[in-house]
Amino acid sequence: MIDLKAAKILDQQDGLNSFRNRFYHGEGEIYLDGNSLGKLPKNVPEQLDNVIKTQWGKQLIRSWSENWLELPERISKKYGLLLNAESNEIVFGESTSVRLYQILYALLQSKQYPTHLISDSLNFPTDLYVLDGLVKQLPKTTLSTITYSQEIEANLEKLKQLIKKKPGIICLSLVTYKSAYCYPIKELNRWAAEHNSIIVWDLSHAVGAVPIDFKETETKVALGCTYKYMNGGPGSPAFLYLHKDFHLQLENPIQGWFGHDKPFEFNPKYTPSNGLERFNNGTPPILSMQAVEAGIDLILEAGMDHLRAKSVQQSEFLLNAVNEVLLPLDFSIYSPMDSSFRGSHIAVSHPQAWQICQALIAGGQGVPKIIPDFRPPSYIRIGITPLYTRFEDLWWLVNQLQKIVSSKAYLNFDDTKRDVS
Ligand SMILES: Cc1ncc(COP(=O)(O)O)c(C=O)c1O
Question: Is the CB of 345 under 6 A from ligand 1?
């Protein structure tokens, strides 16, 4: 592995290195968990302060017409630039789980596709729970969840054959939460369309991590959270993308007033909006929606292609170091090796992963605290967030993993306390 000095030189050569200064960082701390909760952009407190003290504090109800009603549309427009969609094809609000339920329910009720749901074991649990719940609630709905012989990558042939044999509505995470496997989105969208099926993509680990072009990839439905690579803050609103051809064909199962064609006429009869706004439910969460905007602006300013190039370079740097230094210490790599099938995090596995994570987080004398992500039973996820991750951070990580495992320093952390972490 190269030394720390060489890693620092790579940071100096990094064309995106100035973006790091646009975020808050903890002193003596390395954060490698941006794939779970992204960092706070520096201008967010000021923006929120204005929304709270002036818009809410002084202008009160007048702020709806002066600022707040236009906010969701402004954010949708910016997301449209990022993902190549029209601004009226994206709405913000709710959590990913709620959005997934709404759109799957609507697709199932529309009868445009067979009422058969498909997912796989690489998907995030909430997606699988929502699918399972729909099967319980809608008696004609069936579900197939594919499992593969390993948990790193999908078996595309198996997936395609199932879609061919039992078409319907498929739900997949474009970048999977554990291994970061990234599906070939266009190939699968086409396959689905050719077989009377549609794919609902969960982009929670993908948006801001890999470039996505909805038009080019022929994507019809997508959704995801904004608190990971988009740095929108805890519980920031999810987004829902629906191709315009579907807007009038699908009905929101929650007929809330913000989905009404004319919400402020207070008509007792529900008439859905004639656009994607029909998928809105209630009052938008203005404070957290405001916080999302700064993160989107930063991604747009840096450029998704530049971010991706850095993410791949840093992932290769990390994988090479893991290969050289950590594989002999009982670690194994739990992510695809080919970058075209990988998002922006790397998972490694070790039998003592939880204790090792605690040792990393504790840090030590002259050693930074390093915050990765533990996923049961034995995975350490390392989130590469090219807006602020440095090569130096990855160097420290590998160096510390080596020391903690070879010295058995992880034994200082009691494995039986695991479930209170
Ligand atoms: C792929 C994926 N989907 C959905 C979620 C949960 O989203 P929400 O909490 O917004 O419902 C997560 C959370 O980490 C996730 O990783």
Answer: no
